[in-house]
Amino acid sequence: MKISALVTGFLVLSMPAFAAAVAPADAKSHMGESITVEGVVAGIHAAPNGMIRLDLGGHYPDNRFEALIFPAHAAAFDRIDGYIGSLVQISGTIELYRGKPEITLTNAGQIQVITAAHNQKLAS
After folding, report:
1. How many CB atoms lie within 10 A of CB 2?
2. Is residue 12 part of a domain?
3. What is the block-wise mean pLDDT of the chain (124 residues), using blocks of 10 residues?
4. Which of 2, 11, 32, 52 is the most exposed place for a label (fewest CB within 10 A)?
5. 4 within some domain
6. Total number of domains constituting the chain
7. What is the distance between the alpha carbons of residues 35 and 91, in angstroms, rounded to a whole number?
8. What separation in angstroms does the CA of 101 have from each of 11, 50, 54, 55, 104?
Protein backbone atom coordinates (compact mmCIF):
# COMPACT_ATOMS: atom_id res chain seq x y z
CA MET A 1 0.00 0.00 0.00
CA LYS A 2 2.72 2.47 0.97
CA ILE A 3 4.77 1.62 -2.10
CA SER A 4 1.88 2.22 -4.52
CA ALA A 5 1.14 5.56 -2.85
CA LEU A 6 4.81 6.49 -3.12
CA VAL A 7 4.92 5.50 -6.81
CA THR A 8 1.69 7.42 -7.51
CA GLY A 9 3.08 10.49 -5.75
CA PHE A 10 6.31 10.28 -7.70
CA LEU A 11 4.44 9.98 -11.01
CA VAL A 12 2.27 13.00 -10.23
CA LEU A 13 5.29 15.09 -9.22
CA SER A 14 7.29 14.07 -12.28
CA MET A 15 4.56 15.07 -14.74
CA PRO A 16 5.14 18.48 -16.35
CA ALA A 17 2.84 21.27 -15.25
CA PHE A 18 1.13 22.96 -18.16
CA ALA A 19 -0.13 26.49 -17.77
CA ALA A 20 -3.46 27.43 -19.27
CA ALA A 21 -3.31 28.86 -22.76
CA VAL A 22 -3.81 32.60 -23.20
CA ALA A 23 -5.92 34.34 -25.84
CA PRO A 24 -4.21 36.23 -28.67
CA ALA A 25 -5.37 39.53 -27.14
CA ASP A 26 -3.60 38.66 -23.86
CA ALA A 27 -0.28 37.53 -25.38
CA LYS A 28 1.26 41.02 -25.21
CA SER A 29 1.14 40.95 -21.41
CA HIS A 30 3.41 37.86 -21.41
CA MET A 31 6.46 39.33 -23.18
CA GLY A 32 9.57 37.18 -22.78
CA GLU A 33 7.61 34.28 -21.30
CA SER A 34 7.42 30.80 -22.76
CA ILE A 35 3.65 30.23 -23.00
CA THR A 36 0.88 28.78 -25.14
CA VAL A 37 -1.45 31.03 -27.12
CA GLU A 38 -4.79 29.60 -28.23
CA GLY A 39 -6.87 31.05 -31.04
CA VAL A 40 -8.35 30.62 -34.49
CA VAL A 41 -5.98 30.99 -37.44
CA ALA A 42 -7.65 33.81 -39.39
CA GLY A 43 -5.10 33.96 -42.18
CA ILE A 44 -1.79 32.68 -43.45
CA HIS A 45 0.55 34.86 -45.49
CA ALA A 46 3.71 33.83 -47.33
CA ALA A 47 6.16 36.61 -48.15
CA PRO A 48 8.28 36.55 -51.31
CA ASN A 49 11.34 35.83 -49.14
CA GLY A 50 9.73 32.59 -47.86
CA MET A 51 8.65 33.90 -44.44
CA ILE A 52 5.23 32.57 -43.38
CA ARG A 53 2.96 34.40 -40.94
CA LEU A 54 -0.11 32.94 -39.21
CA ASP A 55 -2.63 35.50 -37.96
CA LEU A 56 -4.57 34.84 -34.76
CA GLY A 57 -7.07 37.17 -33.17
CA GLY A 58 -8.08 38.76 -36.47
CA HIS A 59 -6.74 39.36 -39.95
CA TYR A 60 -3.53 41.26 -40.66
CA PRO A 61 -2.94 44.14 -40.02
CA ASP A 62 -5.54 44.07 -37.24
CA ASN A 63 -4.54 40.68 -35.83
CA ARG A 64 -3.71 40.58 -32.13
CA PHE A 65 -0.97 37.93 -32.41
CA GLU A 66 1.10 36.20 -35.05
CA ALA A 67 3.25 33.12 -35.39
CA LEU A 68 6.24 33.33 -37.72
CA ILE A 69 7.96 30.60 -39.66
CA PHE A 70 11.32 31.49 -41.20
CA PRO A 71 12.21 29.88 -44.55
CA ALA A 72 14.80 27.58 -42.93
CA HIS A 73 12.02 25.90 -40.92
CA ALA A 74 9.17 25.96 -43.46
CA ALA A 75 9.69 22.33 -44.54
CA ALA A 76 8.72 21.20 -41.02
CA PHE A 77 5.20 22.59 -41.58
CA ASP A 78 3.90 20.52 -44.49
CA ARG A 79 0.17 21.11 -43.87
CA ILE A 80 0.24 24.83 -43.25
CA ASP A 81 -2.85 25.64 -45.35
CA GLY A 82 -4.86 23.21 -43.23
CA TYR A 83 -4.53 25.54 -40.24
CA ILE A 84 -6.76 28.29 -41.70
CA GLY A 85 -9.93 28.50 -39.64
CA SER A 86 -8.70 25.95 -37.09
CA LEU A 87 -8.51 26.52 -33.37
CA VAL A 88 -4.84 25.99 -32.52
CA GLN A 89 -2.42 26.25 -29.64
CA ILE A 90 0.96 27.78 -30.41
CA SER A 91 3.75 27.39 -27.87
CA GLY A 92 6.98 29.31 -27.52
CA THR A 93 8.51 32.50 -26.20
CA ILE A 94 6.55 35.71 -26.78
CA GLU A 95 8.53 38.45 -28.50
CA LEU A 96 7.41 41.89 -29.59
CA TYR A 97 7.87 42.99 -33.20
CA ARG A 98 6.54 46.35 -34.37
CA GLY A 99 4.20 46.47 -31.40
CA LYS A 100 2.70 43.03 -32.01
CA PRO A 101 3.31 39.88 -29.93
CA GLU A 102 4.63 36.91 -31.84
CA ILE A 103 6.12 33.45 -31.44
CA THR A 104 8.68 32.11 -33.89
CA LEU A 105 7.94 28.51 -34.88
CA THR A 106 10.89 26.24 -35.57
CA ASN A 107 9.19 22.82 -35.42
CA ALA A 108 5.72 21.40 -35.97
CA GLY A 109 5.49 20.38 -32.31
CA GLN A 110 4.94 24.03 -31.40
CA ILE A 111 1.50 24.10 -33.02
CA GLN A 112 -1.37 21.81 -32.09
CA VAL A 113 -4.78 21.75 -33.76
CA ILE A 114 -7.50 21.72 -31.10
CA THR A 115 -10.50 21.87 -33.45
CA ALA A 116 -10.26 21.49 -37.21
CA ALA A 117 -11.37 24.27 -39.56
CA HIS A 118 -14.69 22.79 -40.62
CA ASN A 119 -15.97 23.32 -37.07
CA GLN A 120 -14.70 26.86 -36.63
CA LYS A 121 -15.86 30.31 -37.67
CA LEU A 122 -13.05 32.56 -38.88
CA ALA A 123 -12.10 35.42 -36.61
CA SER A 124 -13.05 38.80 -37.96
Report:
1. 6
2. no
3. 48 50 97 97 95 96 96 92 94 95 97 80 42
4. 2
5. no
6. 1
7. 6
8. 35, 20, 12, 11, 10
